[in-house]
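Internal tracking record. Fields below are filled automatically when a chain is submitted to the structure queue. Please do not edit lines marked as system-generated. If the sequence contains nonstandard residues, flag them in the REMARKS field before resubmitting.
Queue: standard
Priority: normal
Entity type: single polypeptide chain
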Amino acid sequence: EYPDLGDEELYRRARVVTSAVIAKIHTIDWTVELLKTDTLLAAMRANWYGLLGKWFKDTFGHIGNDILGGIVGMKKSENHGVPYSLTEEFVSVYRLHPLLPDEFLIRDISSSTDDEESAVWICRLPMSGLIGSKGDKALSEIGFTKQMVSMGHQACGALELWNYPNWLREVVPQDPDGRDRPDLVDLPALEVFRDRERKVARYNDFRRQMLMIPISKWGDLTDDQEAIQVLTEVYGDQIEELDLLIGLMAERKIKGFAISETAFFIFLIMATRRLEADRFFTSHYGEETYTKKGLEWVDTTESLRQVIDRHYPEMTKKWMNSASAFSVWDAPPQSEKHVPLYLRIP
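SYSTEM-GENERATED OUTPUT FOLLOWS
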């Protein structure tokens, strides 16, 4: 499209376009699968498009404030007096390692049928063998298509207690030159340690700072009697000592939510802040920065499925039955709802 641009400028333009596509997919595709309710679907789309919706914004441009027209395309950024950044609290609630399995189920993609059920798993690979320098070699041998189809057909783990991947308890780190280091990393212990080291508030104080009701007994946190027994053994009756990460994993979930309500409060704030405080989504969101073709690329991309379909159309056609690439691929697509999104009762 732009043969006269030099390598450096092409790279910089492409980088900002790709970053915007990733942010958009994260906002209106990935997050709504993590928080699977109509309310969150409406909220995240309103973050990007505003309450007037995509058609109105595509047709008439950004009109009104961030509520009507969405955050993206506002005339100026809003950082609320704080330099653009992701907070330590956000880092703490974004510890989602229990989503990862201990084993990767490799699927057979050699079948010539169009039946999604033909993607049966043919072997189990320990995740520990798929990271680091040896992981690079193993994944290269598997190939991109088989990796994607295999991941797409394997459900992620639940964010709850006792579901942390065992292979992350003994991670082998590498030096910058790729050599294995002798000291193993116990990642779950390190995550708790980092929160304490950075003075991130413990669970109850964290909730108070978010204007949420703190717990006064273990039964306020969970109905799981085994969890209550273990929490009592570890913390005794010192409710205030409960570490944030442990509380997030033990907390009862809202129906449809993969994360806890406490984590959701931070997610909700940061999902908005990362857009409204970034000039590339506000004052600099236009053809001058993105180019006409680049802006069109962002505006017309709605999902990861669409991106995969662009590059590997045979993959989505044969293997992806779900509407979203972030669902399990052989799941049936959601039935069409005739009630407009903003009128659905939560």
